[in-house]
């Protein structure tokens, strides 16, 4: 130490005092979006308020509307969007222009024990501990209000009371449930939920304050409290510590620090705090919050230089691969001995239902909520919760998986993709044994993962695909043989078969493709699918059966209007739901299905689609129930004739035409029922169901 004193002599000694007059009252405001040379010291502060417990501060600052940098037309437009033209509601901008802006605070740090405000005066340093450090950022809540006003105007302009939910929601029976006593675990989950914390924050009232400028007399008076008021107090004794002890007091070891979670509404760690956790916990926390994520995005959220192989091992412990993307496991979201916050269903049942939804998404891009709910038999709130976690609703198309298929990941990591495929096969056999028989035919013609090593030549791939196609066809043929009854084929006088036709196995030529998505499996027609065409060389049509007619009649009595592609989809679902060995439809082709529709009191509606329409050929073939024996048939016939002239019409046109054709028989209730049964509303116009442009 002696040698160090010679090289670093003491130049001046400064007395340090601790001021306590403003303890628990002093805040430091930072303006991160504003340069230091452009402060708000001289701006007019119109209002100030604080929530002390949350350390939440809001300031209203006037804007200089006379500045050459202020756009008056934009300011007036913003005020009009926010306040509207009505004088009944209280206005945000009384001058009919945006003449003020609001600053809202967020906490810059959760631990201010090491921060203080210092004042150096006459050789003395006075320190006052800070209660909080707040960053003041512009608040854009006025945009939310303008958006709400816009939606209200759109809803008022749109004719009718129909909405998107009419395509999926029907009248259903109300079930009354009595809540059971809340468990301790359920109570803890409710207390930590976002809604509960938001409610608690909203309950704390604002404390309105009066703002004093920097040159105000009251401000000068308050600044005097930054100096220690007890200069001669006996407790201000000299600090007697060794240099090492004093240094340890100023900078304690990092091991002694405790990580404090932020008191935000969702109690989520920041990225800086997240990276202090072990890698496995980082992956688990990210997947629990995001729920669906591509692997590339996950690597981007982790620290640079993280080994992707280690991350792959971690992600497989907390997530499953669906269409090349990672979806968090159900037991991570619903731990053991917990229950649903909506219905009280145990976690084990929730996990099975959610796993089924994930498994179905490995097979197809879209699901219908009603069909899923009918299979897993869980309350609608829980089913909707499952779907919202991993998909988005599409108009008249059900729920589509949230992300596109990540073929790049499957190509780079074929071993992981194959391992995940085997894992899904195990989940099928363990959790869905009763459903396998009904959906096995669907599963057999789906491709979950397509893995092809990059070093294999094109000829080798083609040869392997052909061999795989033959094997798959043989497996499918055995499955079909087991499902259909072994009966002899009897022919009547007309030469037509009166029993289901057995499918003959045909060899695959070298010129055929290994997979055909139009109703064939590995180059062969799928006997249970209406997607096969009798003119493609594979299928052989025959007379439709009474069972097929009954299916078509019941389907159109339920849906009234369907395009051909939707009829095919519903028919495939019906086939998949049949028990093993009970298929009585035989080989159904597109031609047979259309003929059956036209023989079942239905007619094709020649909707004049625009030339730029992206609808497929099957989507442009629209059929409607023409005669059902009800008096309401006349209403539907008039509606169908209207849509044979234009593919979209207004409600007033439909109302006028019905009045002309049916006189007093067309009431508003009848029009509402007709539109609900046969049409969909979009942008103030009405379309036949299934013809809405995507």
The DSSP helix count reads 25
**Major sheet summary line:** 6 strands, mixed
Distance between the termini: 79 Å
Strand content: 5-15%
Low-confidence stretches: 162-168, 256-267, 436-456, 483-542
Which overall shape is indicated by the principal axes computed on the Cα atoms? extended
Mean pLDDT: 76
Number of strand segments: 22
Strand order of the largest sheet: 2-8-5-4-3-9
Q: Please state the CA-atom Rg, rounded to the nearest Å.
A: 35 Å
How much helix is in the residues? 25-40%
By secondary-structure content and strand pairing, the structural class works out as alpha+beta
Organism: Sinocyclocheilus anshuiensis
Domain DNA-directed RNA polymerase III subunit RPC5 C-terminal: 452-693
Pfam families: RPC5, RPC5_C
GO cellular component, one term: RNA polymerase III complex
